[in-house]
Amino acid sequence: MIKTFIDSGVLIAAARGNSEKSLPAVQVLDDANRSFVSSPFLKLEVLPKAIYNQCRE
Questions:
Q1: Above 60 in pLDDT, residue 57?
Q2: pTM listed for this prediction
Q3: Cα–Cα distance measured from residue 18 to residue 40, given in angstroms and rounded to the nearest whole number
């Protein structure tokens, strides 16, 4: 397993799904050979944008 630190930019790019950065982001997230690591601060980075855009999922 490859340990991979997930950045908020990767999650946001994958969630948008409409930019040139989306496909590589989704490919990294779908890689079965990776084990993902993050910090508690990731939630603090991603939630304000989701709340602003009224995303509930």
A1: no
A2: 0.69
A3: 27
